[in-house]
Amino acid sequence: MSLPFIFLVSLFAFIAQAQVPANETFKYVNEGEFGQYIIEYDGNYRPLDPFASPFQLAFYNTTPNAYTLAVRMGLRRSESLIRWVWEANRGNPVGENATFTFGTNGNLVLANADGRVAWQTNTRNKGVVGFKLLSNGNMVLYNSKGNFVWQSFHYPTDTLLVGQSLRVGGVTKLVSRASETENKDGSYSFVMEPKRLALYYKSKNSPKPIVYFTTSKLIDVGNGSLEHVTLNCYPENSANSAYDLALLYEPGNSISGEVWCMGGALHSF
Ligand SMILES: *[C@@H]1O[C@H](CO)[C@@H](O)[C@H](O)[C@H]1NC(C)=O
Ligand SMILES: *[C@@H]1O[C@H](CO)[C@@H](O)[C@H](O)[C@H]1NC(C)=O
Ligand SMILES: *[C@@H]1O[C@H](CO)[C@@H](O)[C@H](O)[C@H]1NC(C)=O
Hints:
This protein is mainly beta and about 270 residues long. The termini are far apart. The C terminus is likely disordered. The chain contains one helix and 19 strands. The protein is globular, with a radius of gyration of 21 Å. It has two domains: about 150 residues, Agglutinin, subunit A (Orthogonal Prism), CATH 2.90.10.10; about 110 residues, no CATH class. InterPro entries: Bulb-type_lectin_dom, Bulb-type_lectin_dom_sf. Keywords: Disulfide bond, Glycoprotein, Signal. This is Epidermis-specific secreted glycoprotein EP1-like. Pfam families: B_lectin.
């Protein structure tokens, strides 16, 4: 073989080898004692190490042996406000001794005890060098330049955190949970459509979703269309520690940049 060829081969090998350092990998097993707080849906949970106040990764269940890997928001001093804000595997629960693994190849995998994969990020050999749960609740896999190769903010389930979006080309709707005990898609959805945001309800009697609220009167995107809506948060004047929430949308024409205020106030942690 010629020298340049060998050089090229070793260069490719070097590029392909960008991988997660062994000391940054992890493997958690869904086993052991349950946590002590009362949590949303009144389930049991097992907290995992990744923590960025007030967010923490955990396994939880509301029916025996049917666990969801999720991000929890809230601390003990605000126990009644503890919420599940992101979920890996709605509708596809894992059992006792399931594993949550981040290997040197950069793939994040949730698997049952028998090895059956329930959920994964599909980021094997895509240049991932690390995992981090950020303080805004975004769980990210990043490359050597610090860019996000994968982020949980791109896969909302039924909740948007501040800074998180629905977006064309990604997830364009939030879907409610079936019931306290059943973690699968439920009857209600919040959908970003080209010209409006809409709330839908479907039931066994009406499998075709019925629209029961839209923003048609609140948003006029003109000749543009909604490409993303992002949840934003603005502190109210300092007297109380309340926040106003707003959905920011930019329909990609000169009308863009309007804010739809939801008007609600949420107390801070
Ligand atoms: C892994 O090792 C590197 C280099 O020694 C160090 O900078 C980094 O903090 C370590 N990571 C963990 C999670 O210990
Ligand atoms: C989980 O694994 C432990 C250790 O291997 C074992 O003792 C236990 O029976 C397993 N639990 C279940 C429900 O399979
Ligand atoms: C869309 O509307 C904006 C402002 O109303 C206008 O400036 C723009 O030319 C329009 N674009 C098209 C393709 O009609």
